[in-house]
Amino acid sequence: MKFSVLSLCYLTFLVSVNVNAQEIAILKYNGGGDWYANPTALPNLIRFCNNHIDTRLDEKPATVEVGSSRIFQYPFLHMTGHGNVIFSDTEAANLRDYLFSGGFLHIDDNYGMAPYLKQALKKVFPNTELEEVGSDHPIFNKKYVFPKGLPKIHEHDGLRPQALGIFHDGRLVLLFTVESDLGDGWEDPSVHKDPEEIRIKALQMGANIIAYAFEN
Q1: pTM recorded for the entire structure
Q2: CA 107 to CA 117: how far, in whole Å?
Q3: Which of 4, 16, 80, 116 has the most CB atoms less than 10 A away?
Q4: CA 45 → CA 36, 38, 176, distances in Å?
Q5: Using CA atoms, how far apart are residues 203 and 161, in angstroms rounded to an integer?
Q6: Hey, which residues does 27 pair with through a beta bridge?
């Protein structure tokens, strides 16, 4: 029996998920953008999820590179930054195989990332465009209900927040949150001094994203 590269990646993914169930990682990318931004954000979101939606996540998320086979060990990847993003052909293919094999990627624009990221995604999905995810999608109605869709956490350019997605076989595999800055809302209160109400909205939306990724 012959297996395609995608089939082999899928089998690897299934085995890896059994080993690292409910683990998440930060995605490290090239291009000069600050992939390491918001250092307290993901640990705070993890603690919130463990306390409120019954996850059992390691409070210290791993860091994996886009082109590494290690991404298949994690059902959920998080990516953020302010600047440039570049994917090589090999990295783009690896990320595409990961997502089509059952993985999930959340990309949070920390302000200024959007134009570079959209260009980089064309290499990953040459035949698929980002599309807006409506407020009726399950990701906004998982553990917490957001009837208006993505919450606004930071002002940025004063535009409405958008949840943009890539779908494969009916499943949302990539979520790109723009003009919201969830990650800033997840940071320690002393970093941005956001009101507690705003921080809770950001954390609840983050919990919805993680719940969706693990359950779909």
Answers
A1: 0.89
A2: 9
A3: 80
A4: 16, 12, 17
A5: 16
A6: 64
